[in-house]
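Hi R.,

Here's the chain you asked about this morning:
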Amino acid sequence: VQLQASGGGLVQTGGSLRLSCAVPSSLDYYAIGWFRQAPGKEREFVAATSWSQGTTVYADSVRGRFTISRDDAKNTVYLQMNSLKPEDTGVYYCAAGRLVKVDKPSYDYWGQGTLVTVSS
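And here is the predicted structure, written out as tokens:
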């Protein structure tokens, strides 16, 4: 079972991107999280949402700029990223877990990642 992240690209500082995560139907009731990994750094939590969208959590570094949402009819979770900064650069991964958590081990299934580059 694998999730499919897409939508990355090159954008200037202050710009916007929307990432998509295609979620297999077998994971319909899972929480979905977004993580990112900058070159030479550990993979870090960005945002997560419960299957009902009743619970959403954001990292302090993105709160107010990023929005996570899901369209269950399309089995897709989105990460809308606004006011992008160079420090947002990295490979973005989506992952599925039983609960909304901020730690990587809580997520059982991962996508392959999509690269976001924010130029200064």
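One quick note: The longest strand covers residues 90-97.

Cheers,
M.
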